[in-house]
Amino acid sequence: MGTIARIANKLGYFVEIMSNDKDIYQLVNDNTVVITQKTSKCEKEFITEKEVLDAFNCAPKQIPDMKSLMGDSSDNIKGVCGLHYSTATKIISKYGSVEKCFINMSELDEKAKNLLNKNRERILMNKQIATIQRHVDIGRIDFRPLHINYKGFL
């Protein structure tokens, strides 16, 4: 899904992904939205970058970084025990990614530094697990316009 969305965007298409899986939110950008079904089955919600920022306190592309620190029980990803959500959001907001955070460890307070050092391998593995791949060799795709009847989906 990540590869198809990336290629479609590159070709100038606006991508709408229908899913209630929040992991997909990392694919959201100016040309990709996620359409979710609200709890009242008749309503749908369009998830844009603004909705992701409001819900997760990070940009869509940073969702795997947040998950790598905080974990995600629905995906069986164990986060860093003892690292608070507010600290994780500050780290990702300031450095942009866990990799850049590791480069700038000297700027962190001792508690955060110790937690991140102790869990470095887990954090990097978590990020790899949480990241939807966007460069998978899937061969040739025909992107001629499709006429989709959403009536049965919503």
Automatic annotation (TrEMBL):
<dbReference type="InterPro" id="IPR020045">
    <property type="entry name" value="DNA_polI_H3TH"/>
</dbReference>
<dbReference type="InterPro" id="IPR036279">
    <property type="entry name" value="5-3_exonuclease_C_sf"/>
</dbReference>
<dbReference type="Pfam" id="PF01367">
    <property type="entry name" value="5_3_exonuc"/>
</dbReference>
<dbReference type="GO" id="GO:0033567">
    <property type="term" value="P:DNA replication, Okazaki fragment processing"/>
</dbReference>
<dbReference type="InterPro" id="IPR029060">
    <property type="entry name" value="PIN-like_dom_sf"/>
</dbReference>
<keyword id="KW-0238">DNA-binding</keyword>
<feature type="domain" description="5'-3' exonuclease">
    <location>
        <begin position="1"/>
        <end position="151"/>
    </location>
</feature>
<dbReference type="InterPro" id="IPR008918">
    <property type="entry name" value="HhH2"/>
</dbReference>
<dbReference type="GO" id="GO:0003677">
    <property type="term" value="F:DNA binding"/>
</dbReference>
<dbReference type="InterPro" id="IPR038969">
    <property type="entry name" value="FEN"/>
</dbReference>
<dbReference type="InterPro" id="IPR002421">
    <property type="entry name" value="5-3_exonuclease"/>
</dbReference>
<protein>
    <recommendedName>
        <fullName>5'-3' exonuclease domain-containing protein</fullName>
    </recommendedName>
</protein>
<dbReference type="GO" id="GO:0017108">
    <property type="term" value="F:5'-flap endonuclease activity"/>
</dbReference>
<dbReference type="GO" id="GO:0008409">
    <property type="term" value="F:5'-3' exonuclease activity"/>
</dbReference>
